[in-house]
Amino acid sequence: MENNKQFIEWWYKNGDKGKEHFSVFYINNMNEQSLFFVDFIIRFKNGVIGLFDAKTKRSDSEAPNKHNALIKYIEDEMRTDPNLKIIGGITIPETAGNNVGFRYCPNRISDTSDLTGWEYFNPAAINNSKP
Asked: Which of 73, 108, 110, 115 has the most CB atoms at less than 10 Å from its CB?
């Protein structure tokens, strides 16, 4: 975040429990309702809100359920307020040579091992997009 502060108005490291932190309901692998607490809430300078959770490939068997619930939450919020622009999802690090970048998917997923169609987390590009 600090490396991209020129594009970010503020960011918040979310907690992982408690009603004072942001969470989304999801149905877990046991078919029970659970809470998903994203790792980071980011407000970009153009007004876009980012809701992201860092994982690695196949590190969390619940990741697709959490991600898909977050995507549904984002869709519902933007349907309720068409002026609102929210992006987010599970982020996965990807190494290319000596560079590590993070990718996220704006669509529903079935696993976290295939990153085909996932976008790169690029604060400059996100900030330059129209909210």
From this structure: 73
* DSSP string computed for 30-92: TS-EEEE--SEEEEETTS-EEEEEE--TTS-TTHHHHHHHHHHHHHHHHHH-TT--EEEEEEE
The per-residue pLDDT for range 52-86, each reduced to its tens digit, is 999 989 889 999 999 999 999 999 999 999 999 99
The answer to whether 44 touches 9, Cβ cutoff 8 Å, is yes
**Helix or strand or coil: residue 119?**
strand
Please tell me the predicted confidence (pLDDT) of residue 3.
Answer: 77
Burial of 121 (0-12, 13-18, 19+ CB in 10 A): buried
Residue burial 64-98, b: 16+ Cβ < 10 Å; e: rest:
bbbbbbbbebbeeeeeeeeeebbbbbbbbeeeeee
Q: Express each pLDDT in 109-122 by its tens digit.
A: 999 998 988 999 98
